[in-house]
Amino acid sequence: MRKNKTTILITALALIALMIWAFHTPDLPLETIKEKYTNPASRFAAIEGMQVHYRDEGPHTDSLPLLLLHGTASSLHTWDSLVLKFPHKRIIRLDLPGYGITGPHPTADYSTQMYMRVLDTIAAQLAIDRWVVAGNSFGGLLAWQYALQHPSVKGLVLIDAAGFPSKVKGGNLGFRIARMPVLNQLVKYFTPKSLFEKSLQQSFGNPNAVNDALVTRHYELTLRPGNRKAIIDRFSNRDKIDTTTLAAIKIPVLIQWGSLDQVIPVENAWRFHHALSNPELVVYPKLGHVPMEEDASALARDIQQWLNKL
């Protein structure tokens, strides 16, 4: 019996090794990724052993810049369409550590406080003493955590933000795999492009709006050396999130949410609304988890109207 179990184990390991060899997805060279996904506005900040990729766009005479924070497995490019709607606004956005061109943290530190330190350093290097912070999904969690600690934040925009427990049917396939022990380790070696297509379709209210350029961008940026491991490591972070602290946020908060979100349900929009002291809520009937990618015009219109009241 013991011999049979040993044989089965060896066979299984051999099959796994064969699959890794046959379907192995290699990293893309960093210089190749930089050449394709940077532009003249791209800058790099040396922070905690990383070269953090960011863009600082728009007039520096703007007295209240806007900081944009993307979600899990995304990049600053998720804001491209929204940024174009604000030609007269100074907008700062970055590839958060673990994602995009920035890549992994050298000690695999993906704690909330590490991200807070990175934002502090960006603010110091750019001499920002007041701004509005907006975040989507995981970036939304970081946005309200940052607002709790920094009086420099004068307004907050939460777009399908994380923080409250989320239970939805289906959800995002890529995120589910990233949380699965053993299986998530295999993703570091072979990562089919079809996985990104399916995950993005689940993140959009209209799956048909997901095009090849969008899938390719997510796929290639994830193949930046170290990013696949970083995504798994980030999901393993066990920071405790205390949503009761939301009551301490007294600044104006705009909550924007896609009603068809399959990752973080729209019920959580109302949870934020009830927990905050000064909220305004807009729900978009036909949009999903990344509404700024589906209808940047609608979100920009509502953000601008809200900004006019600050």
CATH architecture, by name, is 3-Layer(aba) Sandwich
Query: Which stretches of 5+ consecutive residues score pLDDT under 50?
Result: none
The CATH first-level class comes to Alpha Beta
Largest sheet geometry: 8 strands, mixed
CATH superfamily: Alpha/Beta hydrolase fold, catalytic domain
> How many DSSP-defined strands?
8
Q: Work out the helix count.
A: 13
End-to-end C-alpha gap: 73 Å
Principal-axis shape equals globular
Structural class: alpha/beta
Strand order of the largest sheet: 1-2-4-3-5-6-7-8
Share of residues in strands: 15-25%
What is CATH's topology name? Answer: Rossmann fold
The helix fraction, in percent, is 40-55%
Mean pLDDT: 89
Question: What radius of gyration results from the CA coordinates?
Answer: 20 Å
* Overall tally of domains: 1
Descriptive account of the structure:
- There is one protein chain.
- It is built from 13 helices and 8 strands.
- It has a single domain (28-307), classed as 3-Layer(aba) Sandwich (Rossmann fold), CATH 3.40.50.
- Helix 8 packs across helix 9.
- Strands 1-2-4-3-5-6-7-8 form an 8-stranded mixed β-sheet, sandwiched between helices.
- By secondary structure, the chain is an alpha/beta fold.
- The mean pLDDT is 89.
